[in-house]
Specification:
Elements lengths: L26 H16 L4 E3 L9 E6 L1 H6 L7 E13 L4 E6 L7 E8 L1 E7 L5 E7 H14 L14 E3 H4 L17
Antiparallel strand pairs: 1-2, 2-3, 3-6, 4-5, 5-8, 6-7
Bound molecules: nickel (II) ion.
Length: 188
């Protein structure tokens, strides 16, 4: 087990397009997944992409906590810790929704980001099995956020109203125009 250093916005690795993983079952990929899980838990995040720990490979991990799922239009069941290798996303409708996001590579900040509300994604798991999943609500949001990291995209690049970007501490103190505190500050 290892807790790895997380790259912060400004580091060139976060701008790079990550390379596909040739063999999802390789032992070093399993070790990388374990290290990413340890690092994400240590940082109290809800998602992490390999480039964030200086590994330019197409792998992300995420989880959706049931409370957050419920508060953002999901079914409330949450999603257990999931590893996606070489993921691909297809939007299933043109509809987008604004929601607050944070990122472990941009500590202390948050912003309101438009994301597709309904997607399908494909990925390989650590056993090399390709699987397919539909997602809505926060589940769809976190997958889009994490997969953006694989293409060198950070959430602030997608913010349309920059007045809705700032320090979490300030935004959550400012009252009802921002949503309740429990929705905020979940870093990805
Ligand atoms: Ni992030």
């Amino acid at each position: 087990m290892a807790i790895l250093k997380i790259a912060r916005m400004g580091h060139p690795i976060l701008r790079a397009v990550a390379a596909p993983i040739d063999d999802p079952t390789a032992p070093e990929i399993a070790v990388l997944a374990e290290d990413m899980i340890d690092t994400m838990h240590d940082a109290s995040g809800t998602g992490l992409a390999a480039p964030q720990i200086h590994m330019p490979m197409r792998m992300v991990i995420f989880t959706v906590y049931p409370e957050r799922d419920r508060s953002e239009g999901g079914e409330g069941t949450g999603v257990p810790l999931t590893v996606l290798i070489n993921p691909e996303i297809e939007p299933l409708s043109d509809e987008k929704e604004l929601g607050w996001e944070g990122c472990l590579s941009i500590p202390g900040m948050m912003g309101e980001v438009p994301r597709f509300t309904h997607i399908r994604y494909w990925a390989y798991d650590l056993d090399g099995q390709r699987f397919e999943q539909e997602a809505t609500g926060f589940h769809a949001r976190v997958v889009q956020h994490e997969c953006d990291h694989l293409d060198g995209i950070l959430y602030p690049y997608r913010i349309e109203d920059m007045s809705r970007f700032g320090f979490s501490e300030e935004l959550t103190r400012r009252g009802p125009q921002t949503r309740s505190d429990e929705n905020l500050g979940e870093d990805q």
